[in-house]
Structures are given as structure tokens and as C-alpha cells.
Q: What sequence folds into this?
């Protein structure tokens, strides 16, 4: 990387880190279960809400207990249930129109990260009717207070219920970009393990590793604080304790609750300390090929960690201790290796593939440019990389028979 641009990136990141104590971060208030949502709306005298979810969640009937409870409370629920796996600008506009048509007073994002991101972006458009989503992409472009947003995660991984980000895909160009602003942090996050028990094992696995990616990237970056490091270590500890159990025994309440806790703490960590190149590359794949975000993160994570090399040995060792797979007596290199091997073993046990289908070699330079533009200078990664260097990760995750002509 050009030394001048490298210096600019590090100066930009350092400025954000120094400003962190003065920025309006908030941690969402936690609500236990559906009854807690009804009590909150009753207290706030809210009688009409927009529920944003996706077709799969609605078909499985997961929203029914909440809809029935709110109906009994006299709350009208208007539903947008067409959210795509990578929510689009069209999804956001459809949700916004329903909110305005029915004079809603709050938004409930019910589902995985896609539904919650759609809910947050719809809230941003409602708050800023004269700004397009394209104009809000990047950092601190929303500014206006959003309607009350309640996040009900049905997956334990995205952390979207705690974060200042909404990731949206342009319906026409398929370019995927984040919108980052403190006002996007939901005011309330609902801990409802029952809503996660119907999750297929494959989604339990990929969303769980999504949470692990959040915690790891937040921890190894250069903008951590004592608080975010504590949150990340706790998330890693919970993931290694509960993810396999939730995968193998889907109805285990304690495992499901433990994973919701893990996702919550990982979300709190990366909201303040940001993520890294795993996310930047995964976002580009999601935008271009609709690759599920959790799956992309799960596949990419070991490749990116390996590329960082010795720059992350000490911090990976510390995470290995938190996970219970390394000892304080280990060298940093040995502890990092133990943590890396444990991630690979976890991925294998959960049936996560080592590659991703669908990547076209001709698209890689464009995708790498998207990833580099998203990450630099915002993400305080341990090792800065150019778009050209990021291209290697796309080749790493391509099936072997698709890598002909790799540089």
C-alpha cells in the first residue's frame, strides 16, 4: 500500500478511536420475550406498529405469538414480509410506504440481520424523507432521530439488534453498502430463545460463526477498548460453549439463550471497534451473488486470519484462552495456532464448506475494489491491504476446479 495512503488510513482510524468516548453510542435495552414487547408498547401508548420480517419467518409462523399478543393489547400490526436475504432498496421503500400509509408509531424488525437491517433502513428513510439510501451510505449521514425500533432476532449471530449499521443492496446495480449512524442502533433488543429453535441446523451454524467473526474482528482490530475487548472475549467464550449444542440439540433453551447472549455481546463489541476485511469481502459477495452473509463470513474467516500472520498472534492467543482452547502458558504463536485450529475444527463439525460456489473470475477485480472501498480507511484492520491484495481471498474461497488462471 502507498505509504501516504497508509498513513492517512491509520490517522483516520486513530481519530475515530480518540473520539470514541465522546460519541453517542448506546447499548440497546434488553427485553425478555414477547410479553415484554407488549408491556413496552402499552407503556409508551403505541397503538400501531410496522413489523418487518421475511417470507420464511412468516411461513414458519414465528411471528404469530407476537402478532396475537399485540392484537390482544389493542396494537394494530401491519406487516412487510418480503425482505430478501440481502435486503434491497426496494424492500426498504416498500416497508417505508406501509409505515406511512397506516400511521405507524414504531418498527419491529423480526428475523435475522436482513429483516433488522431493512427495518433500520426504513426508519432512516422515514426520518430523512428527502435523502436516498445512496446518500446515507458511509458514516454519520442519517443524523435525524428514527422512529422507535425494536429488534427481535431469530438467529444468534448477526448482532444487528445492537449495531449502528444497516447493510443494503442496490436493487439495480447489486452493489451492497453499509449505512452507519448511531441513530440506527435499535432502542430495544428482545431475548426470545423460542424464536430461534426452528432455525435449520445450517443457519444455526453459519449465524453462530457470523457472531464469532464479529467478536474476532472486533478484538484483533486496532480500535479496541477495555470494554469492547471484554465483550468480545465473553462472546467467544459463549460461542465455544453453546454453538455446537445449539446445532446438535436445536430445542435446548439454555444453548439458544447462550447464543443470543453471544450475538448480543459480539454486536456490542464490533459496533464500537468495527470489523475488518472478512466483512468487506463478504459484503461484496452478498451484493453480487446474494451469498448469505453468515456463510460468507464463516468460509472467509480462516483465510483472512492466516493472511494477517504474526500481527494478530497475541490477540488470537488471548481469544484462545477465552475459548478454553489455549493456555496462558502458551507462547503467543502457539496460542494463536490453537485458536486457529479450533476455528477450523468448529467449522468442520458444523458442516461449513471451505469454498463458496458462484464466484466468477472476471468479477474479482471489481469485487475487490468494492471491498477495499468499504474497508479503507474505516476498518482498523491489523494489516492494511490494497484491492489487489484482497483479490487473493476470492481465489481462496473459489472451488478448486474454478481457479484456472489464478494469478
A:
Amino acid at each position: 500500500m502507498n505509504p501516504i495512503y497508509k498513513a492517512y488510513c491509520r490517522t483516520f482510524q486513530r481519530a475515530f478511536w480518540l473520539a470514541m468516548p465522546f460519541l453517542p453510542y448506546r447499548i440497546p435495552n434488553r427485553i425478555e420475550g414477547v410479553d415484554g414487547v407488549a408491556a413496552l408498547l402499552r407503556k409508551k401508548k403505541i397503538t400501531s406498529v410496522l413489523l418487518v420480517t421475511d417470507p420464511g419467518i412468516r411461513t414458519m409462523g414465528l411471528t404469530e405469538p407476537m402478532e396475537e399478543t399485540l392484537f390482544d393489547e389493542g396494537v394494530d400490526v401491519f406487516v412487510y414480509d418480503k425482505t430478501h436475504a440481502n435486503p434491497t432498496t426496494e424492500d426498504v421503500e416498500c416497508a417505508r410506504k406501509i409505515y406511512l400509509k397506516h400511521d405507524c408509531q414504531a418498527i419491529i424488525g423480526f428475523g435475522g440481520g436482513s429483516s433488522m437491517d431493512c427495518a433500520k433502513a426504513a426508519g432512516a428513510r422515514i426520518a430523512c424523507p428527502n435523502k436516498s439510501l445512496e446518500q446515507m451510505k458511509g458514516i454519520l449521514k442519517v443524523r435525524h432521530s428514527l422512529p422507535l425500533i425494536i429488534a427481535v432476532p431469530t438467529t444468534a449471530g448477526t448482532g444487528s439488534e445492537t449495531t449502528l449499521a444497516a447493510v443494503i443492496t442496490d436493487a439495480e446495480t447489486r452493489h451492497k453498502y453499509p449505512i452507519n449512524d448511531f441513530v440506527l442502533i435499535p432502542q430495544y433488543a428482545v431475548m426470545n430463545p423460542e424464536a430461534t429453535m426452528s432455525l435449520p441446523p445450517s443457519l444455526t451454524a453459519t449465524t453462530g460463526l457470523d457472531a464469532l467473526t464479529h467478536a474476532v474482528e472486533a478484538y484483533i482490530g486496532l480500535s479496541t477498548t477495555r470494554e469492547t475487548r471484554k465483550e468480545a472475549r465473553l462472546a467467544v467464550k459463549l460461542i465455544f460453549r453453546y454453538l455446537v449444542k445449539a446445532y446438535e440439540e436445536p430445542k435446548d433453551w439454555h444453548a439458544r439463550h447462550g447464543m443470543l447472549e453471544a450475538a448480543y455481546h459480539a454486536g456490542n463489541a464490533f459496533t464500537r471497534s468495527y470489523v475488518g476485511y472478512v466483512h468487506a469481502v463478504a459484503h461484496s459477495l452478498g451484493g453480487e451473488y446474494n451469498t448469505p452473509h453468515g456463510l460468507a463470513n464463516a468460509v472467509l474467516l480462516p483465510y483472512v486470519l492466516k493472511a494477517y500472520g504474526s500481527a494478530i498472534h497475541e490477540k488470537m492467543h488471548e481469544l484462545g484462552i477465552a475459548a478454553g482452547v489455549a493456555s496462558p502458558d502458551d507462547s503467543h504463536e502457539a496460542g494463536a495456532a490453537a485458536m486457529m485450529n479450533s476455528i477450523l475444527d468448529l467449522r468442520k463439525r458444523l458442516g461449513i464448506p471451505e469454498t463458496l460456489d458462484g464466484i466468477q473470475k472476471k468479477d474479482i477485480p471489481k469485487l475487490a475494489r468494492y471491498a477495499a472501498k468499504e474497508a479503507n480507511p474505516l476498518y482498523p484492520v491489523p494489516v492494511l491491504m490494497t484491492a489487489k491484495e484482497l483479490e487473493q481471498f476470492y481465489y481462496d474461497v473459489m472451488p478448486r476446479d474454478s481457479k484456472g488462471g489464478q494469478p
About this structure: The mean pLDDT is 94. The first strand starts at residue 29 and ends at 32. Residues 10 and 377 are 7 Å apart (CA to CA). Strands lie at 29-32, 48-52, 76-80, 106-111, 138-139, 148-153, 165-169, 176-180, 188-191.
